[in-house]
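Entry 14. Ran structure prediction on the chain below.
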Amino acid sequence: MRVTGAAAVWSLMLALPVAAQDVAECDWRAAAQAIAEPWAANTATFANGAVRLAVMDVLEPAAGAYHLLILSPPRSELGERQCRVMSADGSFGFAGLSVVGATASYDPATGLTVSLPAKRWSEGDVFTDTRLLVTINQASGAISGSLE
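Output, structure tokens:
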């Protein structure tokens, strides 16, 4: 069977792990007016309330309008938590994101890991259900994300 160049590239892409998600300091994506409604269903706390996650809906682009707001330790001298936003790629978000159905686990070596239902968009208007894994190290402030 002969494999074309495009098929070979596609096969290689499927074998690669999904790239890490982008984490940035809070900006326009973290504005209170962007918290997805209803607020009670789109925010959740973990680690005895030290970590808060909120689904943000910035409306456009529709295929990437959802971002994750993360408030977590370490705290500043004034006691405020660090504020970060996680997106799929730069300022392009997810096609869907929910804290309903989120699960959490803790590993002392890496920190708190929260798994959230997510939906991603791909070229050709393909939408795929997946899970967003968010790891938060409260001691160092390091935050990383990946898709399952």
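The CA atoms of residues 63 and 125 lie 8 Å apart. Will compare against last week's run tomorrow.
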